[in-house]
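Please decode residue identities from the backbone states below.
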């Protein structure tokens, strides 16, 4: 790649992809302005999974005992043995966390790169618009604990989080297809085929890891599986761009042709 402007644009996309695919959070020592408001009328797991995955919470447990007897047991004259279960009791915020692979940075770079590439394909315009929307939605999710609390926060974080995930997937889809459109038909046939396959797996893993972190925060095995899948997704991002670099000459040519046609 000889065009410096094109190199910068590709670098923005690479960093943006990496920031979205990876999460590595560190504590800041700062705290939210208020404690989490636990709700006794709501299942503790629902509260904990949402707060832990979005805002890094901890919890304590209690043991409950079932003392009810079914009609079948009473009729058979059997001795009823109370069942016990360990469940989540209270949820607590941990300190504020900073993601070293920050989604805000990734989405801002992707949106800027799409603005520079929109002359090559309309798909980049759609991708840039989705990236801006995702940036704003992510800002909402981060700000929620400062304006709401308890079960209301859980519901908003969960459902808005689903919308955020959908925007991320749509953004990556438009960008990937925009890049494939910049590759000529026969010359880059294999690269487009393998690139689409890898992009599809990246999108699927992004969905799976997100739901694992949402629903598996209390289970170490699931949490560790989510981290492993996230690392693998980062590796697939590297593979995707490795494939794209094989078409670098054609991508750069399409970029320069798009600039020239726009100036005319």
């Amino acid at each position: 790649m000889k065009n410096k402007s094109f190199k910068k644009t590709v670098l923005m996309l690479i960093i943006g992809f990496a920031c979205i695919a990876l999460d590595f959070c560190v504590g800041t020592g700062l705290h939210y302005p208020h404690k989490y408001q636990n709700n006794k009328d709501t299942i503790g797991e629902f509260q904990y999974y949402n707060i832990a995955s979005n805002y890094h919470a901890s919890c304590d447990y209690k043991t409950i005992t079932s003392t009810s007897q079914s009609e079948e047991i009473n009729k058979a004259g059997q001795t009823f043995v109370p069942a016990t279960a360990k469940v989540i009791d209270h949820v607590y915020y941990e300190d504020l966390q900073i993601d070293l692979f920050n989604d805000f940075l990734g989405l801002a770079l992707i949106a800027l790169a799409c603005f520079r590439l929109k002359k090559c394909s309309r798909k980049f315009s759609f991708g840039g618009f989705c990236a801006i929307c995702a940036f704003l939605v992510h800002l909402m999710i981060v700000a929620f604990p400062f304006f709401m609390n308890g079960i209301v926060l859980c519901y908003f974080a969960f459902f808005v989080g689903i919308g955020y995930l959908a925007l991320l997937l749509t953004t990556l889809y438009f960008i990937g297809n925009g890049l494939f459109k910049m590759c000529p038909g026969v010359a880059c046939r294999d690269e487009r085929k393998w690139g689409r396959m890898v992009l599809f797996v990246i999108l699927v893993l992004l969905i799976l890891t997100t739901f694992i972190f949402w629903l598996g925060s209390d289970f170490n095995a699931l949490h560790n599986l989510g981290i492993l899948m996230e690392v693998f997704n980062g590796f697939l991002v590297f593979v995707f761009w490795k494939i794209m670099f094989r078409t670098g000459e054609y991508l750069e040519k399409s970029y320069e042709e798009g600039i020239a046609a726009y100036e005319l």
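Observation: The two ends are 24 Å apart (CA to CA).
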